[in-house]
Amino acid sequence: MKRDHDKLEGKIVLITGASRGIGKQTAMDFASKGVGVIILVARTQSKLVELESIIRGGTELRQVNVVSYRCDVSNRREVGELAQKVIDKFGYVDILINNAGVGIYGNLEKQTAEDLELVMRTNFLGTAYCTKAFLGSMLKRRSGHIVNVASVAGSFGVAGMACYSASKYAILGFSESLYHELHGTGVEITVVSPIGVKTEFFNHVSFGWKKPNYAGFFLEPQTVSKAILKASCSSRLEIMVPFYIRAGVWLKQTFPYFLNPLVGWLFRRQLNKTKSASNDMSR
Questions:
Q1: Which of 105, 129, 164, 179 is catalytic?
Q2: Angle at 84 between CA 6 and CA 103, to 5 degrees
Q3: What predicted TM-score, i.e. pTM, was given to this entire model?
Q4: What are 175-220's pLDDT values in tens digits?
């Protein structure tokens, strides 16, 4: 059986949301595995240029061809233009990492319609747009792997993050449907669902100064990146990080009347603590 390093060697990898956090770490980790091309995609060009320099400057990473494109994945036209440029230049993409995502924290009644649309367009529609844009070339070659970065919030509705949870539930349903559609085509799809991660995700003003912490700890970006690399070589539908969170999902589905009230209490408690902390800071 081939090692993951051998499976990735020479591959063309495209990563959305690549300028920071999980995406940035994933780009650097793919580069260290001997892939042929890394295509970085994000909204902020300056951060993409900075990451290009980091990858090119790494002692072990110099042989990697790295290019970047500024693109807002929530914009269907921009995604179409991105796909055309990439296909024209490289012909195809072997591995597509749909990682771009945003979150806004707080009660739904206090969020604007624009807030809701931003989260759904970026997290779900961005994933769907990019998948559709590159799927055709994968199917023609009968080869390719799509990795969609979701969240444990796609299995548990989180108080204070209704739209974010909805977007991640949507990614799970979308990916499961495609998993069945793509059977026998040579194209595979895997979802990576982590708990909270130490990234700039929580820098949004809606989180205030206190991050909601449901698991008692946060993952490092390297931990999630490792799961994404594993997913790109896996035939599984979903990889949860950490793996034992799967037990909580099983309990929720098997004993919903017992677990849902407990989970709801935990989420409401975190929401109220974050509200109190924000109010104290504003006094």
A1: 164
A2: 75
A3: 0.87
A4: 999 999 999 999 999 999 998 887 766 666 666 655 665 556 679 9
